């Protein structure tokens, strides 16, 4: 099992089949909060859909394509952070993340992203870590800014959120900038 310790209260742990029920419970409780920014949440995923998602994530982890981890704070699941894609050609890792609303504002996501950046640069030999965020998702944008990411571009109409097209802001961090930051 893959576990990335961040600090004594926080760890990133590869999602496994036994996490499906906890994910459904968390997503159900946070549905309206998360739906604002996540295009896959028209409805709360079923237990079977979560099991299928985790199985696919484990296959992608085994093949080196992606890494989907649960964010565990004080032992409980409070969100997900993932490398949605390791592009081995361009040496670019694209991160995605979401967090239960009751855990926001505590530095949890900033710490989780910092840990995932370190893994991408030093264990996976990536040259660039990228985060794509809906333009009006201020909290997610602040995570990237706090960590020193550069705002690279704005992509118009990048995502269809339930009939509402939103622009994405693309943030990038190079390994060189990370080393000197």
Characterization of the model:
This protein has 181 residues and is an alpha+beta fold. It has one domain: Aminopeptidase, CATH 3.40.630. Helices cover 34% and strands 37% of the residues. It contains six helices and eight strands, in the order ββαααβββαβαββα. The protein has helices at residues 20-29, 31-35, 47-62, 108-123, 138-146, 175-180; strands at residues 3-7, 10-14, 67-73, 76-87, 92-99, 128-134, 150-161, 164-174. An eight-stranded mixed β-sheet has the order 1-2-3-4-5-6-8-7, with helices on both faces. A hairpin with a 2-residue loop joins strand 7 and strand 8 (164-174). Helix 1 (20-29) packs across helix 3. The protein starts with a strand and ends with a helix.
What is the name of the CATH superfamily? Gcn5-related N-acetyltransferase (GNAT)
Percent helix: 25-40%
CATH topology: Aminopeptidase
| Shape-level CATH architecture | 3-Layer(aba) Sandwich
- Assign the CATH class: Alpha Beta
Order of helices and strands: EEHHHEEEHEHEEH
The average pLDDT is 96
Tally of individual domains: 1
Uncertain runs: none
- Please give the largest β-sheet: 8 strands, mixed
Number of strands: 8
Strand order of the largest sheet: 1-2-3-4-5-6-8-7
Domain N-acetyltransferase: 10-176
GO molecular function: protein N-terminal-serine acetyltransferase activity; protein-N-terminal-alanine acetyltransferase activity
InterPro entries: Acyl_CoA_acyltransferase, GNAT_dom, Ribosomal_N-acetyltransferase
GO cellular component, one term: cytoplasm
């Amino acid at each position: 099992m893959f576990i990335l310790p961040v600090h004594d209260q926080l760890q990133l742990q590869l999602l496994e089949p036994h996490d499906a029920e906890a994910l459904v419970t968390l997503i159900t409780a946070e549905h309206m909060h998360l739906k604002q920014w996540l295009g896959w949440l028209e409805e709360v995923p079923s237990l079977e859909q979560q099991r299928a998602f985790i199985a696919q994530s484990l296959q992608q982890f085994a093949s080196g394509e992606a890494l989907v981890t649960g964010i565990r704070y004080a032992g409980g699941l409070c969100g997900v952070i993932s490398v949605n894609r390791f592009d081995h050609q361009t040496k670019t890792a694209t991160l995605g993340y979401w967090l239960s609303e009751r855990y926001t504002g505590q530095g949890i996501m900033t710490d989780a992203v910092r840990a995932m950046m370190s893994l991408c640069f030093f264990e996976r030999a990536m040259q660039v870590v990228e985060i794509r965020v809906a333009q009006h998702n201020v909290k997610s944008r602040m995570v990237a800014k706090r960590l020193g990411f550069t705002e690279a571009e704005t992509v118009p109409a990048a995502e269809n959120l339930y009939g509402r097209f939103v622009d994405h802001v693309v943030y990038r961090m190079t390994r060189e900038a990370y080393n000197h930051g």
